[in-house]
Write a structure and sequence with these properties.
By secondary structure, the chain is α/β, with parallel strands linked by helices. Helices cover 33% and strands 27% of the residues.
């Protein structure tokens, strides 16, 4: 499962990230760095530089993958739902909007943009999804937050957790990619597994797999970046 990543190196890098984020001193490239504990839970990201890849000529790729542990549990969701789904959302403490609520926005671009900004992702009832563009215009799509479908028999909480643990690699015109793979409150082993799975999944999307990957780093929001692949 570890693919091309050096397990001992990855282990040490995760140790250092967790130590730094809890306020301990770490040594990086012979230099001592003083850690600092922040008053929020830092996200851990994987950052990847591609090589032998031409974004102009080579096929663009895009893929999603569900990690075993939710990397960012604090993502905010809003349910665009029918009556049953709005009621269910209310029970589990999730924000929700009905067709009537959406109509009130009157396709106002500013209001739709504000709505897209307020939440990290949206779910929509399966019988409502087709109405979303008609009710809101292209705002959510432009923000990259078009809703995920929730079918009538599906468990809302499970679906929310699934979206929260799904990562997406999408090739744009740049050679660098970054995606959240964990946070500093997670168990060390869960972080390692998420990093390995994310790296292997990205390699599987590339034409020459690992030969298209130049460097790979992991870093916490406020911490130094640690190289895990050369």
């Amino acid at each position: 499962m570890s693919g091309k990543l050096n397990s001992a190196l990855l282990d040490k890098c995760v140790d250092d990230i967790l130590a730094f984020s809890s306020g301990e001193n770490i040594t990086k490239a012979g230099e001592e760095l003083t850690g600092k504990k922040r008053n929020f839970v830092e996200t851990i990201e994987i950052q990847i530089t591609l090589k032998n890849y031409d974004p102009q000529r080579d096929k663009r790729f895009s893929g999603t993958f569900k990690l075993p542990t939710v990397p960012r549990p604090n993502l905010k969701c809003c349910m665009l739902g029918n009556a049953a789904h709005c009621e269910q959302a209310d029970r589990i403490g999730v924000d929700h909007m009905s067709v009537e609520d959406l109509k009130k926005l009157n396709k106002n671009k500013k209001l739709v943009k504000k709505l897209a900004k307020r939440y990290d992702f949206f779910l929509a009832s399966d019988n409502m999804i087709k109405q979303i563009p008609r009710l809101l215009g292209p705002g959510l799509t432009k923000a990259g937050k078009f809703p995920t479908i929730l079918a009538s028999g599906e468990d809302m909480q499970e679906k929310i957790d699934e979206v929260k643990s799904t990562i997406k690699f999408q090739m744009k015109k740049v050679m660098c990619l970054n995606v959240a793979v964990g946070n500093v409150s997670m168990e060390k082993q869960s972080i390692i597994v998420n990093v390995q799975l994310a790296a292997n999944f990205l390699a599987s999307l590339l034409k020459k797999q690992w030969q298209n990957i130049g460097q790979m780093y992991i870093k916490s929001t406020m911490g130094p970046s640690m190289q895990i692949y050369f």
